Amino acid sequence: MSDWRRELSNATVxxxxxxxxxxxxxxxxxxxxxLSAHAGTEILLKLELAQPIGAFKIRGAANAIAAxxxxxxxxxxxxxxxxxxxxAYAAKARGMxxxxxxxxxxxxxxxxxxxxxxxxxxxxxxxxxEAAEESRRLVEQEGLAEIPPFDDPLVIxxxxxIGLELMEARPGLETLLIPLSGGGLAAGIALAAKAVKPxxxxxxxxxxxxxxxYESLAAGRNVSVEEVPSLADSLGGxxxxxxxxxxxxxRDLLDxxxxxxxxxxxxxxxxxxxxDRIVCEGxxxxxxxxxxAGKLPRLAGPAAMIVTGRNLDMSVHHDxxxxxxxxxxxxxxxxxxxxA
Length: 340
Ligand SMILES: *Cc1c(COP(=O)(O)O)cnc(C)c1O
Fold this sequence. Notes:
Layout (H helix, E strand, L loop, with lengths): L3 H4 L2 H11 L8 E3 L1 H7 L3 E5 L10 H9 L8 E3 L4 H12 L4 E5 L5 H9 L3 E4 L4 H15 L2 E2 L6 H17 L5 E5 L4 H13 L4 E7 L4 H8 L26 H8 L2 E5 L1 H15 L9 H7 L10 E5 L6 H8 L4 E3 L2 E3 L7
Parallel strand pairs: 2-10, 3-4, 3-6, 4-5, 7-8, 7-10, 8-9
Antiparallel strand pairs: 1-2, 11-12
Helix pairs in contact: 2-4, 2-8, 4-5, 4-8, 8-9, 9-11, 12-13
């Protein structure tokens, strides 16, 4: 038996559902007629972009924060992205202090977004490592509780509540297409959905530039990858040097892992916008990208795609919708106007 089963089960996910009710929403599951026609079977979109922070990470954060004792002096984390937003929002809902630690390199818009949710922003040093050190200091010296972005049983269980909602709304679902980074989302959903329907197929999808979980699953051990700019920025980053849960869970619970290119993500963001009127970040479009590029195994029955979030820079979104080229570090993605 894998060690992770000692720390969480589908009962942990069931419990999370009650704990996060009132903070995270049960999100809509809507059909995409364009993608369904393309796939030859029904494709449903799970719209996590409708959450109060514009992304699913509010689920895991709310579950972890709900479990803290009343006398806990507050929480800390060092994510500048959707996890930081989730922690800020859920802490505020519980009336708790939240500190989000980040480096000087983080864009002002992200700083402002997290501050607007009531969190205290700590800007320390010029690297994520220095920000992480400040977060550790707050744990040791001020007694704040660190909320990890994915490798934590309560965070995984919170994300897993999506799996419960999916299988309740559509018991006939045969395939789940899940954006894959640290793996908390995919592990939680797979755990919950397979407890209800063991035969459901769960596929994790990442960008082909810096996919730590994909590379680690292939190598059979935790490998670190170079982090490079990507349209799927929320899928970047490593698994953590001491990954305890998500690598083993993804190894045991995922049926497949697939990579998509930046061009395929660009095209999928356009498709979701022009065909389904959806504004989403690149990390949310990887499932659609794999489908449109013909990279998925044959889908025999209905499939759900998790549209994980919508927190992207709107000027980038405008450029992509207008078919303009986009710069990603030293790579220029050629522009291409959308045609169905
Ligand atoms: C965090 C995140 C993911 C990936 O979740 P993991 O649990 O790290 O695999 C996917 N999409 C968005 C928008 C995210 O913020």
